[in-house]
Amino acid sequence: MRQPNLSDVALFAAVADAGGFRVAAHRRGMSASSLSDCIRRLESDLGVRLLNRTTRSVTPTEAGARLLRRLRPALDEIGAAFDDLDDSADGPVGNLRLNVPVPVARFVLPTLMPAFLQRHPGLTVEVAMDNTHIDILAAGYDAGVRYEESLARDMIAVPIGPRRQRFVAAASPAYLAKHGTPRHPRELPAHRLIGHRFESGKLGVWELERKGRTVRIAPQGPLLTSSQDLEVGAALGGVGIIYTFEEYLRPFLDQGTLRPVLEDWWQSFDGPYLYYHDRRHVPAPLRAFVDFLKEGAGAAD
């Protein structure tokens, strides 16, 4: 066995973390073919296959997983040392990549980012909006924001934004004058309901709650869309009843251009969480953002 190149060892860990050559190569600023050559060279030097490669995935072999477990503490310490070296006298430097749902990008981050970026002028933040649950590591993100039911057990979760939120039902005064106001969720199927379809293709089912009882309604009506803005516009135009995040509707409820429907049945739920992989080494930009949230800047009542 020849002495392996330590750069190749680090690249092996990067491919294993990313679950593929393309994402790992993008993170490292190199081509996938060059990265693949480095891994083949490492396997040749060690005389053992480290990765199982298929058209759909790249996973460590048993030997690769065993090696990775032994290497991980040392690689994390090396990464932390370079992060500390990169931190300037004014604080951390680098890029923070976040994947968040659309409501978080619209209603939570705008209240946080100005103060965070003012505190850390050496950082840049890249935010992608995505309502589906993804593998943030494989997609090249440092962290994501999702709700509790979507969090994997091996993730670290930190509260961000309001700790309680609600779905609210509403309709325009013109719609209610023409069709009447439902008094119980069982009356909803007789109404014109504005439906939401997620990017995954799944239909959003309305869940209304009161005194421990939950009623689920699959909305049927004249409009089904993945656009929250279109749904709100349709509700304002008298198309039907909408049921969505309170933040989308609150301005119109306050103005009276929408009126509450079944207010006693509005469902409340825990607010979102920033989540990231459970590992010893946390990149400096992410560590700075987590510290910022833990100080109380990111969680509201």
Q: What do you see in this structure?
A:
Helix content is 39%, strand content 24%. It is α/β, with parallel strands linked by helices and 301 residues long. The protein has three domains: 73 residues, Orthogonal Bundle (Arc Repressor Mutant, subunit A), CATH 1.10.10.10; 100 residues, D-Maltodextrin-Binding Protein, domain 2, CATH 3.40.190.10; 107 residues, 3-Layer(aba) Sandwich (D-Maltodextrin-Binding Protein, domain 2). A hairpin with a 4-residue loop joins strand 1 and strand 2. The longest helix has 25 residues. The mean pLDDT is 89.
Helix-strand blueprint:
Elements: H1 6-18, H2 21-28, H3 32-46, E1 51-53, E2 58-60, H4 62-86, E3 94-100, H5 102-107, H6 109-119, E4 123-129, E5 143-146, E6 155-159, E7 161-162, E8 164-171, H7 173-179, E9 194-196, E10 206-210, E11 213-217, E12 223-225, H8 228-236, E13 242-245, H9 246-255, E14 259-261, E15 268-270, E16 273-277, H10 284-297, E17 299-300
Parallel strand pairs: 3-4, 3-5, 7-17, 9-12
Antiparallel strand pairs: 1-2, 5-16, 6-16, 8-13, 8-14, 8-15, 10-11
